[in-house]
Design goal:
- The protein is α+β, with helices and mostly antiparallel strands.
- Among the domains are: 147 residues, no CATH class; 176 residues, Nucleotidyltransferase, domain 5 (2-Layer Sandwich), CATH 3.30.420.
- The protein has 18 helices and 23 strands.
Length: 601
């Protein structure tokens, strides 16, 4: 049952999508109610299975209630109900018993720093996944297996050893709980990890680490949520852990049963061609191109379907440009949705979201622009990112594109755009497939005096991210900690500003803006002159992250659908250029036409 009520704010609608009030459930037909009663029993049994709490007798409970210290260590709890199907098809009831952790008496002393993998780590994992399925991972020709899973009742697992005094739980009480035999004790002593505690994610993360390390897994030096298993110095399995969601790859000669036996799984799926798998709210679909090589298509269809679509009142644009309180709330909500989409699988909208006014700077025109962007992504849920069939070996090339738009942001700010990815050595002479690993669209950290200053700031940011990605992958390739291994892979960086290119190539550039000289020296220390390439603006793909323009957005979207790296001028580039900019071309090309032209060439 989808819960949407007219007159509610977007935040209130989203809250109802996440949780259904128990009174609403009781008003439904008996068969519907019975399913949620079964969900309550399932949750209660999980708590018993993991020995999360221990019931106290009435006499023991009275002693706790009368003790001046222990009585302050009682946490209330509540039952949260939701339909995992979100009202689509048959109801999938879920009950979660949650302690009100914000009332925890130890809150100030608890460790709450639970880690999650970075987006760059996740993208690198996708690149490894595709390369493994194409038998081109880590300089071997062995095939790999890819899988995802979510650990069942994750936050009930693990032991909290940081508390010096016991913690107690007051059982949940509502109209549904009272219809069952569960949670009948007056009080419960907390024995392990439970939902709602501020340190529950840390406790679970430590438990995951302990179990994986028991099998010989080690953690990546740059990202502790990436676990690696090596044999004879070579990686044979890798797993990233995002809270209770796992994404793993394993070499075909490695037995996965030991890993899968470590946890109780709510779901466990293996990647299959044309079968979408959900991970972190994204749909991952394994596909084959015309050469029968695997690539990965990443979309946000379900997320976009769940976003409510609003509109600005007629005639509002002719009124005051200042936003009302409700309009500011609406703008913040839309911004949050679009920023997440731009950071996960829709980079083509990143510049629009970043350049829109935020906070006190926002005007009604900004809200209109964000509404238009929201409409665009909702109408195009099939678009996203394609992880191309790029080998993940010691011969791979780390390539970055950097660009800027001077003084196009508020308060004379400049917008910078950076793309970093992996490609093949053939990129030095011809077009080559490109897998996107990292990207950024943001205002320059300083007000730039010239286009050269803005371009240098973007290039400095790109060089920094290139070095990070190179070190990250080098640890995987050479079995040595990232901060010690050095940048072992070949690196290239593309710019389209000739003045910047000349300054970087110069041994002693003469610049009036000394701060820009500092940026150029920083670039030169990271990237050698042999690793810098000048490209024409039409092949500067970072341009799509620097400005708001419908034609540029469409070209960038097309590039994300079939990302190719272009560093050289050649007649062979023409089909791809026509694909990116069909309105200015003599004929329209689809991605299939372009790939066919490339293979023919």
């Amino acid at each position: 049952m989808a819960i949407h009520k007219q007159g509610l704010s977007r935040q209130e609608q989203k809250a109802l999508d996440r949780e259904i009030p128990w009174r609403t459930i009781l008003a439904m037909p008996p068969a519907y109610v019975d399913k949620f009663l079964a969900a309550i029993s399932k949750e209660a049994n999980s708590w018993l299975e993991w020995n999360s709490v221990e019931p106290l007798s009435p006499e023991e409970a009275q002693k706790v209630l009368k003790d001046p210290l222990l009585s302050k260590r009682i946490l209330p709890s509540r039952a949260c109900y939701r339909d995992k199907a979100c009202g689509i098809g048959e109801v999938q009831p879920k009950c979660r018993i949650v302690a009100l952790g914000h009332l925890d008496p130890d809150l100030a002393t608890l460790n709450r720093n639970a880690g999650t993998p970075s987006r760059c780590t996740e993208q690198i994992m996708y690149a490894m996944l595709v390369a493994g399925l194409n038998c081109e991972l880590f300089d071997t020709t062995l095939s790999w297996i890819a899988w995802t899973g979510d650990a069942s009742t994750a936050f009930l697992q693990g032991q909290n050893a940081d508390r010096t005094m016991p913690l107690f739980l007051r059982p949940p009480q509502d109209g549904l709980i009272s219809m069952t035999q569960h949670w009948s004790a007056p009080l419960y002593r907390v024995r392990g990890n439970v939902y709602g505690l501020a340190d529950a994610p840390v406790t679970w993360s430590k438990e995951v680490c302990r179990r994986l390390q028991s099998l010989g897994f080690t953690q990546h030096d740059f990202d502790r949520q990436l676990y690696l298993l090596r044999k004879d110095g070579q990686i044979i399995a890798a797993i990233i852990v995002y809270v209770d969601d796992f994404l793993g790859i394993s070499r075909s000669d490695h037995d996965l049963s030991s890993v899968h036996g470590l946890f109780k799984w709510g779901a466990l799926n293996y990647f299959q061609e044309n079968k979408p798998i959900t991970f972190k709210g994204k749909e991952l679909t394994l596909k084959r191109n015309e050469h029968q090589r695997f690539y990965l298509h990443i979309t946000l269809k379900k997320f976009l379907e769940g976003i409510e679509f609003g509109a600005i009142a007629k005639g509002r644009l002719q009124g005051s440009p200042e936003l009302s309180l409700d309009e500011r709330k609406e703008l913040r909500s839309i911004c949050g949705c679009l920023q997440w989409a731009a950071s996960q699988a829709r980079p083509e909208i990143a510049a629009t979201v970043s350049l829109s006014g935020h906070g006190e700077e926002a005007k009604i025109t900004d809200l209109k622009q964000l509404h238009a962007t929201l409409k665009y992504v909702k109408e195009t849920p099939q678009y996203g990112i394609n992880i191309m069939d790029v080998p993940f070996t010691r011969d791979s090339v780390v390539l970055g594109y950097s660009d800027s738009s001077w003084a196009n942001a508020r308060k004379s700010g400049s917008q910078i755009g950076v793309l970093v990815g992996l490609t093949t050595p053939s990129v030095k002479t011809t077009m080559a497939p490109f897998t996107l690993l990292d990207w950024r669209s943001a205002r320059s950290p300083r007000v730039c005096r010239s286009t050269l200053a803005a371009e240098a700031t973007a290039a400095d940011e790109c060089a920094d991210r290139l070095a990070y990605v190179n070190l990250f992958i080098s640890e995987l390739m050479y079995n040595q900690a990232a901060h010690r291994v050095g940048s072992r892979l070949a690196t290239l960086q593309a710019v389209d500003a000739k003045s910047l290119f000349d300054a970087i190539m110069s041994e002693n550039p003469s610049l009036n803006d000394k701060r820009t000289l500092v940026s150029i020296r920083a670039i030169q220390e990271t990237i050698s002159s042999k690793e810098i390439r000048w490209v024409p603006t039409r092949f500067q793909f970072g341009d799509g992250l620097t400005k708001t323009d419908d034609k540029l957005l469409e070209a960038f979207r097309r590039w994300l659908n079939m990302p190719l790296a272009v560093l050289t001028e050649s007649p062979e580039n023409q089909p791809y250029e026509e694909y990116l900019f069909p309105q200015g071309a003599k004929k329209k090309n689809t991605s299939e036409n372009v790939m066919q032209s490339m293979s023919t060439s």
